[in-house]
Design a protein that fits this description.
heterodimer, A: about 260 residues, alpha/beta, TIM Barrel, five-stranded parallel β-sheet, three-stranded parallel β-sheet, 8 strands, about 15% strand, B: about 300 residues, globular
């Protein structure tokens, strides 16, 4: 099982202890995870995505095979299509996009085009609902949570492959039940922000939406990696056997170099 | 059926901040939620849930501003739940300090029915003089006060008259003989503000509950306050509490410090007599814990 929602790099609004790739490798081993899709945290707030992507690939180079790059593509940036293909060639595991931080509306045609283009090259598109709890955000952190409308619009765009991280039960249900069965199958969710007992939101979603729609994400280095494991451990006994999806199965199968 | 070794590890464990629901709480699934708390508590290894009922939870008066009638009705329900499960449940009597006479009477009534602490919500700013009679009675009776807290109050929020660590510290300084549990360090707002706000107020003890699992929070709390000032707790999200428990084991906490956070600090605050199964469990498990090499598992490691 891999972690589909890890990052390296600093966060602009508070200090994060050692958000470094070598530490992440040790944490994944301790948690029994075989790898991670890793984003570069500052990229969510950068205008030009190129330097952040370059820093990400360089930092992960010694750890490839365990840490797989999750670079960003800004569909409002010139020649984004060329960038996408270049990143795919470089071995990106998926593409990250931050519509709220970049001011892209749910109806943005370029965002839709990016989702379709990612699907064409076989890369999942990863969306982040939030980095922090709304109640603790810095006065300058005004982007707001990703909206359900964004996810619905992208899921309806065509045969796309979306991974939505950081959603709670409310947004997740609003999206899932606002899609056709075919569209629902285009979306996977991590459960890092879904409540466990006593409300048992995760158990409810496993029973209604289906465990197979979920992938494992930790949001390290922002959040404790132990939380996602704890959520699974505290499921009611009848749900222990329900299997979630390994995000690795959503990424393109790469040929081993001969 | 629970596993022989709980998910939260062996040894006593007190959840210092729990809630239960009741028939007048306005939700049809209240019994399911209560049962889920006990189910998850058993899986984690919670020895005692120290819990409160928050009036009608907004059904007939606001959650954080319960009417006297709703506060009493909720306390009655809480007392019945505790009486029905003495092995696992202890309770706080909930009061609204805007109704001083009722609050003081309710505390007396609660103690007669077994309450071991007082729960204050967000009905009045923590440093308001209206809280003084409640704190004086709490000190007289040795009842810790669990106070709902917003970590760093930068503005008003709807449906609560929120207080932060600084507000609670001012109240605690006025009442040095009373003990205050600062609610849910991980429960919203900026925990980094709370730590220096209460550092020099030794009768304030933050609980670690809340849905927030920010990396760095536990380390910072231990650095600022030490293990003797922190209480493990769940509040509304038990998975985050289990995650914090596991994180505490990998950040270098000694077995002794871990026991303080898990249960001994709570036993000091509420009185060891409040938690007889913890003492028995600790004595029975002492040899096992030593054999299991807890000190080794607590070796410093990034979380």
């Amino acid at each position: 099982m891999i972690d589909c929602a890890a990052f390296i790099g600093p966060y602009p609004f508070r200090h994060l202890p050692h958000p470094d790739p070598d530490v992440l490798v040790r944490v994944l081993a301790r948690e029994g995870l075989s790898g991670a899709w890793v984003g570069y945290l500052p990229s969510a707030w950068h205008r030009d995505p190129a330097p952040g992507n370059a820093a990400l690939f360089a930092a992960l180079a010694p750890h490839r095979g365990v840490l797989e790059p999750a670079p960003v593509v800004r569909p409002d940036w010139p020649q984004w299509e060329r960038t996408l293909h270049a990143l795919a060639e470089q071995g990106a595991a998926c593409i990250r996009v931050y519509p709220m931080q970049w001011g892209l509306a749910p109806t943005d045609a370029k965002l839709r085009a990016l989702a379709l283009a990612c699907a064409e090259v076989g890369l999942p598109l990863v969306l982040t609902v939030r980095f922090e709890d709304l109640r603790q955000r810095h006065v300058l952190d005004v982007a707001g949570d990703l909206t359900a409308a964004h996810v619905r619009a992208l899921a309806r765009a065509g045969d796309v492959r979306l991974v939505v991280t950081g959603a709670g039960r409310e947004l997740l249900e609003e999206v899932h039940w606002g899609l056709t069965p075919d569209e629902q199958r285009r979306v996977h969710w991590d459960f890092a922000w879904v409540w466990g007992p006593p409300e048992d939101h995760l158990a409810h979603l496993f029973r209604t939406v289906g465990a197979e729609r979920f992938v494992y994400g930790t949001h390290w280095p922002l959040r404790l990696t132990q939380n996602s494991r704890a959520s699974l451990d505290l499921l009611p006994p009848d749900l222990h056997a329900r299997g979630i999806t390994d995000a690795r199965s959503l990424a393109p199968i790469r040929k081993t170099p001969t | 059926m629970t596993s022989p070794i709980p998910l939260g590890g062996a040894g006593p464990l007190i959840d210092a901040h729990a809630h239960f629901y009741h028939a007048a709480a306005g939700r049809a699934d209240w019994e399911r939620v209560n049962a889920a708390r006990l189910r998850a508590g058993d899986a984690i290894g919670v020895t005692y849930h120290v819990a409160s009922v928050l009036g009608s939870y907004g059904h007939t008066s606001p959650t954080y501003f319960p009417s006297p009638t709703d506060a009493s009705r909720g306390n009655d329900a809480m007392a019945e739940l505790a009486a029905g499960d003495e092995a696992r449940i202890r309770w706080y009597v909930t009061v609204n300090p805007n109704h001083t006479a009722h609050a003081l009477h309710e505390i007396e009534r609660g103690v007669q029915r077994g309450a071991i602490g007082i729960k204050l919500l967000a009905s009045r700013r923590a440093d308001d003089p209206l809280l003084d009679p409640v704190c004086e009675l709490a000190a007289e009776k040795g009842l810790p006060i669990l106070h709902h807290i917003w970590q760093h109050r930068t503005r008003e929020w709807p449906n609560q008259e929120i207080s932060d660590g600084g507000d609670l510290a001012r109240l605690a300084e006025r009442h040095p003989r009373a003990w205050f549990v600062l609610a849910h360090l991980g429960g919203g707002g900026d925990w980094a503000h709370t730590l220096p706000a209460v550092r020099d107020t030794p009768n304030v003890f933050p609980d670690l509950s809340g849905s927030g699992v920010d990396r760095g929070m536990l380390d910072a709390a231990l650095d600022a306050l030490g293990a003797r000032r922190l209480l493990w707790a769940c509040d509304l999200t038990m998975e985050t509490a289990l995650a914090k428990l596991r994180a505490l084991e990998v950040i270098g906490l000694s077995a002794d410090d871990l026991a303080d956070v898990r249960w001994r600090n709570a036993a000091r605050l509420f009185g060891a007599g409040a938690f007889p199964r913890c003492t028995v469990q600790a004595l029975a498990g002492a040899a096992d814990v030593a054999a299991a090499g807890v000190a080794e598992s607590a070796a410093t490691s990034p979380i």
